[in-house]
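Researcher: Structure prediction, please.
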Amino acid sequence: MTSKTIHAQLVDLGVGEGNFLVHSSLSSLGYVLGGPQTFVRALLEAIGPSGTLLMPAFSPEVSDPASWTDRLIDPEDLPEARANVPAFDAAVTPTSMGAVAETFRTWP
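Model: Predicted structure follows.
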């Protein structure tokens, strides 16, 4: 799948100038030449220069360990865990929302 193909499919779906919140799965698209960069570029071209593109960019790895549901922290270990979770830094903290969201997060 190429940028041109993706762009045409997005337009067929009604994507055009406007505001869009996109939660995507690159693997669901099949093989995309150029990977997530191609998909993000096609999205940006479809919404145009006056459109707004939003994507979730959660970084649960830098949240309060008490709120983690996929790995439980013993309550007595919470103070140490909280003291050692790195602070969020937009320049280096990746999102865990997938390749497309991470590519968009770092898009110039």
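Model: The mean pLDDT is 93.
Researcher: Thanks, that helps.
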